[in-house]
Amino acid sequence: MFSPNPAVRVVAPGSVSALAPPAPASAVSAESDAYRAGVAAGAEETLAGPAAELVQARESLERATAALVVAISELSRARERATSIETGDVVALAFELVSALAGHVPDTVSPELVRSALALAPEGDVATLRLHPDDYETVDGLPVEAKLVADPSIERGGCVVEVGATRIDAQRGPAISRLRRALVEATP
């Protein structure tokens, strides 16, 4: 409906604004400014909680990342220490172990050792069996013909069998030395 008087507005029935006079332009502007300020404050308040949570989550992630970097660094140093054991140390340890085990062997030559050494000798010629003088009297009942020689250079509990150009050294000391050389040559 059209109203000839600008101070009177015609509105639909049941509308609240039908009772209020029109607001001046400055009031509309103030109302609009207040609305915008309220929306901004509400948005700030609404976003402040999640933003704070994001900041806390980021700080927590940064702390966890720093702790992981420290742990990786410590693990790397531990790995370097573990792998820095020199090959010589391993060989020395193996040598000490073999020497300790060999130290438990009786100091008298065993019949099994003599038989094993003689069994390795080529057949045909008479074998020479070299023994430490203290072991010389303990050997008897050889499985093959052999010439017995008391030799002070042979260690107690060991023997050397010679047949032609073949030499079978059945002493602990030289066996351990050969083992040591083999370990050193086999390690990078």
Could you write a compact summary of the structure shown?
It contains 5 helices and 4 strands, in the order αααβαβββα.
Can you put this structure into words, describing what you see?
The protein is of the alpha+beta class and 188 residues long. Helices cover 55% and strands 10% of the residues. The protein has two domains: 21-80; 87-186, hypothetical protein PF0899 fold, CATH 3.30.2320. The protein has a four-stranded mixed sheet with strand order 2-1-3-4. Helix 2 runs antiparallel to helix 5 (172-186). The chain is rod-shaped. The N and C termini lie far apart (105 Å). The model has no long low-confidence stretch (mean pLDDT 76).
Jot down its keywords:
2 domains, rod-shaped, hypothetical protein PF0899 fold, four-stranded mixed beta sheet, 188 residues, alpha+beta
List the helices and strands and how they pair.
Elements: H1 25-83, H2 87-102, H3 111-120, E1 127-131, H4 133-136, E2 146-150, E3 159-163, E4 166-169, H5 172-186
Parallel strand pairs: 1-2
Antiparallel strand pairs: 1-3, 3-4
Q: List low-confidence stretches.
A: none
Please give the domain count. Answer: 2
- The number of helical runs is 5
Assembly annotation: single chain
The H-and-E topology, N to C, reads as HHHEHEEEH
Biggest sheet, open or closed, and with what strands and sense?
4 strands, mixed
CATH architecture call of the largest domain: 2-Layer Sandwich
Strand content: 5-15%
By DSSP, the count of extended strands is 4
CATH fold annotation of the largest domain: hypothetical protein PF0899 fold
CATH class bucket of the largest domain: Alpha Beta
Mean pLDDT metric: 76
Q: Structural class of the secondary structure composition?
A: alpha+beta
Shape: rod-shaped
Percent helix, as a range, is 55-70%
- From the alpha-carbon coordinates, what is the Rg to the nearest angstrom? 51 Å
Order of strands, main sheet, comes to 2-1-3-4
C-alpha end-to-end distance: 105 Å
